[in-house]
Amino acid sequence: MPLTGRFGIEEEFTLLDASTLVPVSAEGVHAAVLGDVEGGGRLSAEFMTSQVEAATDPVGSLAQAREQLGRMRRMLAEHAPERTVVAATGAPFALAGAGRVTPTPHYDDVSQLIGRLASEHTVNGLHVHVEVTGDEERVRALLRLREALPLLLALSANSPFAFGVPAGLASWRSTLIRRLPVSWGPPIFTDADHYRRTVDRLVGIGLLPARSSVSWAVRLSEQYDTVETRVADAQLEVEDTLLLTALTRAIVLADDVVPTSSAPDDLDASLWLAARHGMQARFCTADGGSESAWAAAERVLAGIRPVLDELGDAEFVDDRLAYLRAEGTGAERQLRAHASGGVEGLAELFDAPSQPLA
């Protein structure tokens, strides 16, 4: 039977002052663009008032996703005030004072739960939903993705600055996310009932305001029949977003791949190393050894290549991985832009949403 694998993508952005790269209010942009987008997709407010989210409709191909994501990025750039940039980065270059949380009942609950952390929580993620029929099948897909989380984080690392200086980590956003309750790598679930009981217990003891507030790097969506990855930083370019989407979808659909279920401490270590070093990291392996991030990429690709071939995504994935080998992750590209051009050079790099797609 031919594979379908409908999916949806959510990208988050922060509006930054072009001269300082600190967050500024995006509420003027919100007033102009929020809502359903003609041609597909939806723009909505995010946790902080400086942020905005672009979400595709459910789609069946990378081409459809590319069209919707490109259109929404261009809309945001066109409506941004002068001397601002819509930054596709995991975390802003710098913060100035406490940010303001978007006033909604859900965000109010989250803000009350995490206290002072809320005012510093300006982070942009890339979330990928892949449709899976059946709760048990969704849990098995979650376990397959669980094993690939360090690789997906390393490939997506795109937040190398904190407080206006290099953070010394490829994904500063990940360290901020790690401070939240029920974040980072999920447990090893035996079945769907185990997943539900675990989440219900966490809500019951007050660790989460609602089931939908789970912040694991991969989770089961409460709203859709999907598995949702939340491990990735927001990406500089649409093509980077599509690479991570293609890999995520293929891992979900490769149901003949049996996950090894890494021990929680090994997964935690590998995720931290991915956040620290990006694609220069080494990861723990199930046999007690280690492997480079690029070796992990080759291993994962070997397992999912039949799915990529059937979906018609293999050539794109190979080409984009070759691009990353040559040009570096978003974090590496950001550091180069800043080293050569300072804040102005970094602002020019962040202006990518308004540029033509590759």
Summarize the topology.
Elements: E1 7-17, H1 27-33, E2 35-36, E3 42-45, E4 51-55, H2 62-79, E5 84-87, H3 105-114, E6 125-131, H4 135-156, E7 161-162, E8 165-166, H5 172-177, E9 183-184, H6 192-204, E10 215-216, E11 218-220, E12 226-233, H7 238-253, H8 264-277, E13 282-284, E14 290-292, H9 293-311, H10 314-327, H11 330-350
Parallel strand pairs: 9-10
Antiparallel strand pairs: 1-4, 1-5, 1-6, 2-3, 3-4, 6-12, 7-8, 11-12, 13-14
Helix pairs in contact: 2-7, 4-7, 4-8, 4-9, 7-9, 7-10
Describe the 3D structure.
This protein has 358 residues and is α+β, with helices and mostly antiparallel strands. Helices cover 45% and strands 16% of the residues. The protein starts with 6 loop residues before the first strand and ends in an 8-residue tail after the last helix.
Question: Can I get a quick summary?
Answer:
This protein starts with 6 loop residues before the first strand and ends in an 8-residue tail after the last helix.
Could you list some keywords that capture this structure?
disordered C terminus; 358 residues; alpha+beta; eight-stranded antiparallel sheet; 16% strand; 45% helix
Q: How many strand segments? A: 14
> How far is the first residue's CA from the last residue's CA?
33 Å
Largest sheet: 8 strands, antiparallel
The fraction of residues in strands falls at 15-25%
The sequence of SSEs as H and E is EHEEEHEHEHEEHEHEEEHHEEHHH
Class inferred from helices and paired strands? alpha+beta
What is the subunit arrangement here? single chain
Contiguous low-pLDDT stretches (5 residues minimum) are 353-358
Coarse morphology: globular
Alpha carbon gyration radius: 19 Å
Mean pLDDT: 92
Helical content class = 40-55%
How large is the count of helical segments? 11
